[in-house]
Give the backbone structure.
Amino acid sequence: MPRIALSLLALFAVAACSDAGSGYLEAPLLTIADCNGTGHPRRFEPFHLALRELAVHDAAGAAVVRLSPSARNVEASDQIVISIRDARALAAAVKGDGSLTLALHADGTGEADLGLALLHQCKSARASLGATRTVTVEAYGARPGSIVAGVMAFDLIDRRDGSVVGSGMTGEFRLRVADPPFALHDF
């Protein structure tokens, strides 16, 4: 009987701690040039990235939001990084209107910049991958425990040559800002 009670207690403890939220990014096809140092591209067909961790670095009115499957350091994680030029305006708009859609341009000139790095799955890839279209933010806060939520719809571009490497990428996320923020020193 005590073993069952301890097992149930452990199960409830895990369930209580797993309140960080979740998200995903997916596409029918993603092709990464020289993913594993072989000189050949790697095709992810379909591509799916689970998102379980989120950190926000908010400074001087701008913000960097990092979404990742794990809390590993930047150098070892697959991740989406969204740089927001005016985080104060974003927070005000989300609080007032409930959401704000930000334009993404692969050359970095949009209202936000979204990059994808597959540093765990493609350790040798050197491509700089940027998004073009939109990310809509539905909840935003920079403090630990705050909810950040949104939806993404974009094409992924290799910034080196302008080629489309992932078309029709979509995703959504609703995650709590990590407490303490994970790998914040890596931003």
Q: What stands out?
A: The helical segments are 2-17, 87-97. The radius of gyration is 18 Å.
